[in-house]
Amino acid sequence: MDVDYLAHYPAALHGGPTPTGEWWRWGPHDLRLHRLPAPEAPVVAVVLHGAGGHGAMLLPYGRLAEGRAEVIAPDLPGYGDTRVGGPVTWSDWIACVADLVRAQDRPVVLLGASLGGMLAYEVAATVGASGDHRVRHVVATCLADPSDRRVRRAAARWPLLGEHGPALLGATRVADPLRVPVRWLTRMTAMSADPALTDLVCRDPRGGGGRVSLRFLRTWMTSRPTVAPEDFTVCPVTLTHPAADTWTPPALSIRFLERIAAPTELVMLENAGHLPVEQPGLDQLRAALHRGWDGLS
Question: What residue ranges define each of the domains in the chain, with the CATH number in brackets?
Answer without folding.
Answer: 3-148+227-293 (3.40.50.1820)
